[in-house]
Each structure stands twice: as structure tokens, then as C-alpha cells.
Amino acid sequence: MRDTHFDFQHKIFSLSGAFFAPDPTTKEPVLNITLGDLKAALPFQTLKESFNIAEDSHDSRLLGTVARGLRYVKQIRPGEKIPGELLDGSASWSVDDKHRLVARGRLTVQLVSWITGSEMIVVDIDELEQIVEDPQTKARLKSAFAAIAEKLGITENADQYITDRVDDLTQELSYIEALRDRFRHIRAISDNLVRLSQIYRTDRTFVSEIARMQGLLKRPLKEYDAIFEQADAQTGEIVGALKSFETTVTFIRKIRDDLREKLIEWEELLQAWDGVPIEKSQTVEQLQKITYRFLANRYMESKVWERK
């Protein structure tokens, strides 16, 4: 338990309902507790000083683990398991079967296109499904396994070895596909803003704010597209990815964790947009204001003017 769970020893951590989360304003990790009618959010330094938690103690070290763990989960409660990312590199969250199918499809395309001599990276899901369902794909895949095994110098149980490696890589990439799927909702916000600018075209102030929001959104969209391109490129040369398997997995997991951390920041806003009809309404207008504040706080460039 000590090695795998947040097994705090001080009684403050055993209070009912206690949990760790980033402070909404400062983003630093805090312990949230309730004492009667009083709710408190204690920064870690205040927590240690107020309850005599020594810097070199088990609890203090565990608070450092909590701070790192909040990169991957929104909340942590005392007694919970430490996120897998910090234990063995595995993800602490799950993916749907559809994301595994997409990851498998992408790898299948890479293997088949490699054996035919024209490697390619397919991102469009419809195009991906057409290629995977082609009757010739299975035969080419078998040939690809044999050719890759020979290229890697594998002689015993070669087919099973390549199959296992592809299965493992499929699992790792399924998290990238799940994140890609969710990040499409950020692009959907951009599309919704285009529609709203038409719906509210007679409201000059609203349309002006929409235009500024669209400008602010360009930066994260460009940044996230570049990260996914990196992930796709890592398996674009499939033989190299299988040959340097551990390095490939480490790289994919780093991208996974970086994207997951970014997505956690967006998640509350994405949930607010999900299912909202794009039409004139107070709900939409309130959502527009919330979104503007979110984007401005993170992506508005500020200049420091100095007198010369």
C-alpha cells in the first residue's frame, strides 16, 4: 500500500470528504477540507506548517507525489491509488473500444503500405476503414509480418513476436486516439463560433467578441495539431517504431501525458458546450462569455511597454 497508494498518516488527511485538487485561481495544489460549516483550501506549505508535517516525512513526500499526480487526474483523495503514470508509466484512465479499433487500423495501414513500398500516414477515419476492410489487406499484413521479422532478425516465433508488439503498440496508441477524439470538441467550439457569428450578425458587439475569440483559438488548435502530427510521425516509419519499441512507447506516453494535462484544463469548458443548441439563447450568450474569459486568460498576448 505504501508504494502504490496515498496512505497518509496524519489525521488531517482522514477527514471525511478531504480531497486534493488544483486551486481554481492559482492552479497550485491544495487540500480541500470541511470543518463544520467551514470549508478550507490549504496550500501544501501552509498545510505542513499548520499541522507540523516535517519536510522529510512520509506525508511530505507523498504531497509531492500528489502534486505530480494532479497532472493526470482532476482530483485525488487520501487512500486512493497513485496514478499509473507515476508508478509504471501506464495511463490512469481508460479508453473505449472504438479508439483501440482506430489505433489498430492505423497500424494495419502502416504495415500494409510498408510492404507495398509506399508508406503513408492515414488520418481520415473513413479512408482508414476502407483500406482495412479491403480483402487484400489480410494477405498483405501476413507478408508484412514475415518481412519485418526478417528485417529485425527474429527467427523464433516471429509471427507471434510481431503480433504481440503490434498489440502493445495498439494499446499505447489507443490513448492518443481517445485524446484526438476529445480534442475534436475544441475544434467544434471554433466551428460553433462561426455559426454564432452568422446567427448574431446584427449584434456588432457580440460578433466582434466572437472574432477575437476565433483569433485566440488559433494558437491552441495549431499547437495541438502539431502534437498529434508528432505522434503520427512516430509510427509513420513502422519498422523503426518496432525496432526501437521501448523508445517508441516512451515517446508516445510522453505525448499522451502532455495532451492529457492540457485536456484536463479544457474539460469543464468542453462539457459546458456539449449538447448545447447553437441558437440565440441566454445559455449560449453566457457560454460565450465564459469561453472568452477562458481563452483570454490563457492565450491573449500581453506586451510590456517600457519608456525609452
What share of residues are in beta strands?
5-15%
Order of helices and strands: EEEHHHHHHHHHHH
Helix content: 55-70%
Uncertain stretches: none
Distance between the termini: 61 Å
The overall pLDDT average reads: 90
Largest sheet: 3 strands, antiparallel
Inertia-based shape:
flat
The total strand number stands at 3
Strand order, largest beta sheet: 1-2-3
User: What's the number of structural domains?
Assistant: 2
Overall structural class, as computed from helix and strand content, comes to: mainly alpha
Number of helical segments with 4 or more residues: 11
Radius of gyration: 24 Å
What's this model, at a glance?
The protein is mainly α. Helix content is 62%, strand content 6%.
What does the model show?
It is a single chain. This protein folds into two domains: 77 residues, no CATH class; 211 residues, no CATH class. It has eleven helices and three strands, in the order E-E-E-H-H-H-H-H-H-H-H-H-H-H. A hairpin with a 2-residue loop joins strand 2 and strand 3. The longest helix has 42 residues. The radius of gyration is 24 Å and the shape is flat. The termini are far apart.
List the helices and strands and how they pair.
Elements: E1 19-22, E2 29-35, E3 38-43, H1 44-50, H2 58-69, H3 84-87, H4 97-115, H5 125-132, H6 136-151, H7 158-199, H8 204-234, H9 238-243, H10 245-273, H11 282-299
Antiparallel strand pairs: 1-2, 2-3
Helix pairs in contact: 4-5, 4-6, 4-7, 6-7, 7-8, 7-10, 8-10, 8-11
Descriptive terms for the model:
mainly alpha; three-stranded antiparallel sheet; 308 residues
